Every structure is written in C-alpha cells, then in structure tokens.
Amino acid sequence: MIFVLLSLNLSQSAMKPLYFLFIFLLSTSLAHGLKVFKVKYESQADLKVYVVEYESQCDLKVYFVEYESQANEDGLWYFVEYESQAEKKVFFVEYESQADLKIYVVKYESQAGWHKKDKQHLLL
After folding, report:
1. Smallest Cα–Cα separation from 18: which of 8, 30, 27?
2. 8: containing domain
3. Which of 14, 60, 61, 82 has the greatest number of C-beta atoms within 10 Å?
C-alpha cells in the first residue's frame, strides 16, 4: 500500500489524508476478533491450534463469544456454523509441537488478548 502511494507522485498535502487512511485501515485490521470454523482434518485447516493448560504457556488468550457481533477484539472467537462464513479454519491438534498457535481459554471476555504478540501475523 505504501509503495502504491509513493509511486503516485502526489504532493505532501495530498499524501496526508491517504497516509491517515492507511494507518486507520491497518489498525482496524490488527485489532479484531475471529470467526472460526472447526475442521475435521488437519489438511483442511488454515491454522493448527493447541489448547494449553496454563496461561503462561499460551500465545493468545481466547474467550469464545456467544454472538458473531461480539467477536470484535483480539482473542474473542466466534464459531460459525458453515466453513464459508469463517475467517480461519482451525484444527485442534493433540500435541503442542504440532501447533501453529497455542491458546489458553479464559473465563472472562476482558481477559482475552495476546500473551505473546510474535504470532499475530497468523490471524491477519
């Protein structure tokens, strides 16, 4: 996106609104919940997930929301009924070493969010 803006040869005054638009779009895409669909086979998954026993072991603290509209922040996941509705298809693995992402399921919505931010790119 930045390369496109730079290649347009716009004046600085014309670039400023485009720059703010880019920052806004980037920030809104980084902070969102997730609509997930649980697949039966690992080969169908976009993301392999392991549920850890302790919060200190996780990458992401997850709270499963009841309604799709509640999945609006990091760590708030909503299970959709159909694969086509999902942003990510997940497969829950049996062993931690098989996982792309380790999650810890929290009791309260306010506890959800990243524990280790180095895996954020997996949910973009």
Report:
1. 8
2. 1-30
3. 60
